């Protein structure tokens, strides 16, 4: 098919796995209105690019809007998204907030990452309501799934991962993670190839979060063996796929 002709291996993996997961789990339906949460990082940029292509491939119509929540560390750092929206035929909404600095207030008893992601999710849910969206798409990948599993296991004594699809508000909003079965190496490569305008996260806690720490668990468990690492990731992916297919 013409659309896929000039894609490299990584781009095809992102597009193909996303499509297969969408199909297997009945993620979207005709007339769906999908908000894509774009942080400015590689995962959510690739998610946006992939869903734009899937929009042309699937045999039904669905709408897309890009949603960005600026956490308030650098009020102008979303300029690449503004420029990109100007050059691409897609609607977008950029919400300026101060959730980042507020989450880092030394008086808080909870961790800044917890407070920030809680507040961000609330802003995103409010935007979904404002635009009557049926879906909110997040850019989590296979390594995020593994890190979340370890975080839940170690911090909250729960065996829980990240769902490919979850219902909220009595089913009026479906949260989806179309890149959940894709490893980061493919996403990074695809982002470079598509020349997506990724920007640095200015958060002072970036790279120092509990999730980043848990990403190291995969290397600890696999002892540096690539095949073992992939087997662990495959187990997590199979588990979530089974759960999501049962929800269908
Ligand atoms: N500021 C934001 N505005 C909109 N969506 C966001 C924002 N931050 C995170 N998200 C959404 O939540 C997902 C998971 O967040 P996380 O903090 O793990 O992302 P990230 O690693 O900073 O960036 P990315 O996943 O885009 O590479 C993102 O993929 C994106 O879909």
List the helices and strands and how they pair.
Blueprint: H1 9-25, E1 33-37, H2 42-57, E2 63-70, H3 79-87, E3 92-96, H4 99-103, H5 112-130, E4 135-137, H6 142-156, E5 165-168, E6 173-176, H7 184-193, H8 210-222, H9 226-247
Parallel strand pairs: 1-2, 1-4, 2-3, 4-6
Antiparallel strand pairs: 5-6
Helix pairs in contact: 1-2, 1-7, 2-7, 6-8, 6-9, 8-9
Bound molecules: adenosine-5'-triphosphate (ATP).
Task: Summarize the structure in short.
The chain is α/β, with parallel strands linked by helices. The chain has one domain: 3-Layer(aba) Sandwich (Rossmann fold), CATH 3.40.50.620.
Bound molecules: adenosine-5'-triphosphate
Count of DSSP strands: 6
Main sheet characteristics: 6 strands, mixed
Helix vs. strand class: alpha/beta
Output the CATH class name: Alpha Beta
So how many helices? Answer: 9
Spell out the helices and strands N to C. HEHEHEHHEHEEHHH
Question: Shape, please?
Answer: globular
Helical coverage, percent range = 40-55%
What do the pLDDT scores average to?
94
CATH topology: Rossmann fold
| Amino-to-carboxy terminus distance | 29 Å
> Going by CATH, what is the homologous superfamily?
HUPs
Kindly estimate the percentage of residues that lie in beta strands according to DSSP.
5-15%
Give the low-pLDDT segments.
none
Q: Please indicate the count of domains.
A: 1
